[in-house]
């Protein structure tokens, strides 16, 4: 094939060394199985059952990417590799760490635990926000589908994602990569690795990435303040062979990220307004929206991450012992514009009045500034009047005026965890086993604050007194403490030469508590909606029911998570399996005051004197939510044809989810509110197919197909949604691609890779066309510009259209360097990244996806 070895990171030997993340014996076995002649197909070794096994033999639905795949596909962040896997999707919208991953119709939930186990070099990462980081120096990625709770524990209700970084090398080596692209993209990273002594090897990776972004703030005229990103990361790894039997694996990392936040627009979904005002924009199709960013509050997100882990592997007589200790700390805040302007909260503040004098879209013939560039045509659907016409306009969120206030959030977490496990060390034995215990201590601080924008700048802290520049009017501020303890084990037994029975069981126990940090003080008085019957209310409505202080809360959750797998070798090249598995993620708490706020504004009261009496939404949103349990039955086939040059893997599955945790977003006169609710029963069934074919030694094709059929069986919070599809779960996804590696001389090589991805139509809410009440029913009772109700919402136009993207990369490679050009979404497909429906508001918040990206990279290996 080639006369020179490829990049050390992408070599077969380096790829196989990933198994050393678990045991030295596993590393040796994997290297032996993969260190084949380059003319042969390199077989990926899976570590999905915490021991090295052929990907084509492990009885789990696994999609895997080798180091070479990662390099040629230009994978830099999790969204890049998730796009290549059928029945797996990602939403990357609000801020850098706020990703939602959907595996087989089960989506990770904002403000709750993740739905998949994220494991890096054998260490379980406990912070959901830690997933969406730069992927540096990666040897292999595996995506395990279906519940993996038995071995991977808490939160693995949908699957697991295993990332293995490259081991430190014996010989000194390294690389430097620089890159540049459109949208102000600049990248530089470097790697150094080698022996520090006879028994210590080290590896250091550093990276700096920045991007101005694809979108412009038309108010300020700047193109580097919307979807911008700056990421600085440094990671180190040491492997210390303490003795022939004991090896220590020490990892540490620091990361600082700055980026844009909450780059949303909004649309209405109010059919009655279309008729009342003869304006179709009040029920427009979300896919037809033209995005405008004109916020006056700087959208910013900052994250500082520190991580450290120590893993010890003992190779003892007949068994191996692995111990892991891990510490992670994330400090994060975000600041952005607010969205309460449509409800006139800050209508009469001096800054709102000043802004409206010049920042309005009232026609000049009516005495206005006619700023249609900022708000669109007058009342289509937004209409902003100059001062003198009060409590009448329709402002919209995230506007150039101070009338919408601001929002401030924190999502900080520190955690300490550990695991010890013992495993048999003979992978060829008739009976193989593994057993272990795990613990974690997690502290998470969650802040959501809303307040007045007085044009005096912003203090970046949870509470601002009325005398401050940006006083707080609504505050949720809670500290969540979680203690986790679990025990697990698995036995794999060969019933005969062709049949294996694997039985795994895990017991997880979580003790969770939450304490409130909100001071018992009144709002600033600047927001008219904080007055109830002429009385200024507290900054958290929960104080109305608990004037002497909001009590702490605590609950415990536990679950047995079994998994039984029967695998059978139909022939030398065809393996089958059947499995039954259970996954679990803990219940938890919404911010204290969530229920009180929603009841006041949206639910009928006994007293009959609240806005909720007019709305009567009959919501069942509480300040806590139940645990989620997933049960999965699966049948799968894995095959190798034509001497292993064609690999076809398929699986069918049926999953039942009890108390599926679902993120709900509420908007109203109070501002914005985030809450976790539950869908009591959800059924999902589907099919997956992965194909890879080595057409020649240099030309390979690959693809995958995912089909889902989901149905909500019970939803007490919104009973009208029974029969609808699972949120954020397209029925069809598929991928298709090829790679071509061709020598152009004895010294140079051209590598080309093209990937096509298709994602079907997607609903983002349980409501998918059913009409339910909105806050406008209350405003219709007050007279003014809102006609009498009812004014129900209808999300018939809130479904994201299907879309497809095309990525390509072509590289000229030599023994020591690579020059590549690449393009992502090269057809510049315009599609929505996220739709956040807010039913009681009567509309949705929309986030666009990145536009076409292209650039050039140069890598030098030494």
UniProtKB/TrEMBL annotation:
InterPro entries linked to this entry: Beta-barrel_TonB, Beta-barrel_TonB_sf, Plug_dom, TonB-dep_rcpt-like
Domain TonB-dependent receptor plug: 55-160
Record keywords, A-Z: Cell outer membrane, Ion transport, Iron, Iron transport, Membrane, Receptor, Signal, TonB box, Transmembrane, Transmembrane beta strand, Transport
Keyword match Isomerase: no
Residue ranges occupied by any TonB-dependent receptor-like beta-barrel domain in the UniProt entry: 262-826
Bilayer topology term: Multi-pass membrane protein
A GO-annotated cellular component: cell outer membrane
Compartment list: Cell outer membrane
N-terminal signal peptide: 1-30
GO biological process terms on file: iron ion transport
Tagged with keyword Lyase: no
Homology family: Belongs to the TonB-dependent receptor family.
UniProt protein name: TonB-dependent receptor
């Amino acid at each position: 094939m080639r006369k020179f070895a490829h990049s050390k990171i992408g070599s077969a030997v380096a790829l196989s060394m990933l198994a050393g993340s678990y045991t030295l014996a596993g590393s040796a076995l994997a290297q032996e199985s993969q260190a084949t002649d380059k003319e042969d197909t390199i077989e990926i070794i899976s570590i999905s059952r915490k021991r090295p096994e052929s990907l084509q033999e492990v009885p789990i639905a696994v999609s895997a990417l080798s180091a070479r795949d990662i390099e040629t596909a230009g994978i830099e962040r999790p969204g890049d590799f998730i796009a290549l896997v059928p029945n797996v999707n990602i939403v990357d919208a609000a801020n850098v760490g706020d990703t939602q991953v959907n595996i087989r119709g089960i989506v990770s939930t904002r403000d709750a635990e993740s739905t998949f186990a994220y494991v890096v070099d054998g260490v379980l990462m406990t912070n959901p926000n830690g997933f969406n980081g730069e992927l540096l120096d990666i040897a292999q990625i595996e995506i395990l589908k279906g519940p993996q709770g038995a071995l991977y524990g808490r939160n693995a209700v949908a699957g697991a994602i295993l990332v293995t970084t490259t081991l430190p090398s014996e010989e000194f080596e390294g690389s430097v990569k620089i890159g540049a692209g459109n949208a102000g993209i600049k990248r530089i990273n470097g790697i150094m690795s080698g022996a520090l002594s006879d028994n210590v090897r080290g590896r250091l990776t550093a990276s700096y990435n920045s991007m101005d972004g694809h979108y412009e703030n038309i108010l300020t005229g700047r193109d580097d303040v919307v979807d911008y990103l700056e990421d600085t990361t440094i990671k180190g790894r040491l492997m210390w062979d303490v003795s022939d039997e004991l090896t220590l694996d020490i990892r540490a990392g620091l990361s600082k990220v700055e980026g844009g936040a909450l780059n949303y627009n909004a649309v209405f979904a109010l059919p009655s307004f279309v008729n009342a005002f003869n304006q179709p924009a009040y029920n427009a199709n979300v896919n037809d929206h033209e995005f405008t960013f004109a916020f006056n509050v700087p959208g910013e997100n900052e994250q500082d991450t520190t991580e450290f882990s120590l893993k010890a592997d003992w190779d003892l007589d007949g068994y191996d012992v692995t111990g892991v200790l891990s510490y992670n700390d994330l400090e994060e805040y975000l600041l952005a514009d607010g969205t309460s302007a449509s409800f006139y909260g800050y209508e009469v503040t001096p800054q709102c009045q000043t802004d409206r004098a010049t920042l309005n879209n009232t026609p000049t013939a009516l005495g206005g500034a006619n700023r249609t560039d900022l708000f669109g045509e007058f009342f289509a659907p937004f209409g902003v009047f100059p001062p003198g016409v009060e409590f009448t306009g329709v402002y919209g969120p995230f506007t150039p005026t101070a009338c919408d206030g601001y929002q401030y959030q924190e999502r900080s977490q520190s955690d300490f965890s550990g695991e010890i496990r013992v495993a048999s060390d003979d992978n060829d034995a008739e009976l193989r086993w593994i057993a272990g215990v795990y613990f974690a201590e997690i502290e998470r601080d969650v802040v959501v604050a809303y307040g007045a924008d007085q044009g005096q700048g912003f203090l970046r802290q949870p509470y601002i007194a009325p005398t401050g520049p940006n006083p707080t009017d609504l505050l949720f501020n809670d500290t969540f403490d979680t203690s986790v303890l679990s025990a697990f084990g698995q036995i794999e037994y060969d019933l005969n030469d062709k049949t294996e029975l694997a039985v795994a069981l895990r017991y997880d126990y979580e003790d969770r508590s939450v304490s409130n940090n909100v001071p018992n003080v009144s709002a600033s008085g600047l927001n008219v909606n904080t007055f109830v019957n002429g009385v200024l209310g507290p900054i958290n409505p929960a104080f109305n029911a608990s004037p002497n202080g909001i009590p702490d809360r605590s609950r415990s959750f536990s679950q047995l998570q079994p998994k039984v797998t029967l695998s059978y070798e139909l022939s030398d090249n065809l393996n089958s399996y059947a499995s039954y598995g259970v996954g679990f993620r803990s219940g938890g708490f919404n911010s204290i005051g969530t229920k009180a706020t929603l009841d006041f504004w949206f639910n009928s009261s006994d007293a009959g004197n609240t806005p909720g009496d007019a709305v009567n939404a009959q919501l069942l949103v509480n300040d806590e939510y139940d645990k989620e349990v997933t049960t999965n039955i699966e049948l799968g086939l894995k095959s190798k044809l034509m001497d292993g040059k064609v690999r076809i893997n398929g699986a069918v599955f049926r999953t039942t989810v009890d108390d599926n945790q679902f993120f709900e977003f509420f908007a109203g006169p109070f501002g914005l509110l985030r809450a976790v609710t539950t869908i009591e029963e959800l059924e999902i069934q589907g099919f997956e197919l992965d194909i890879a074919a080595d057409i020649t030694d240099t030309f390979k094709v690959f693809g995958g197909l995912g089909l889902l059929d989901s149905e909500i069986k019970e939803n007490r919070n919104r009973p009208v949604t029974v029969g609808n599809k699972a949120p954020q779960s397209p029925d069809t996804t598929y991928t298709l691609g090829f790679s071509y590696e061709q020598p152009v001389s004895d010294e140079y090589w051209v590598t080309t890779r093209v990937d096509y991805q298709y994602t079907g139509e997607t609903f983002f809410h349980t409501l998918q066309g059913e009409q339910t009440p909105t806050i406008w029913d209350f405003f219709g009772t007050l007279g003014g510009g809102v006609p009498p109700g009812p004014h129900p919402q209808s999300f018939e136009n809130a479904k994201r259209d299907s879309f497809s993207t095309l990525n390509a990369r072509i590289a000229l490679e030599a023994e020591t360097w690579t020059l590549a050009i690449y393009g992502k979404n090269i057809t510049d497909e315009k599609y929505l990244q996220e739709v956040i429906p807010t039913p009681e508001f009567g509309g949705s918040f929309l986030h666009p996806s990145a536009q076409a990206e292209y650039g050039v990279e140069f890598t030098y290996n030494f």
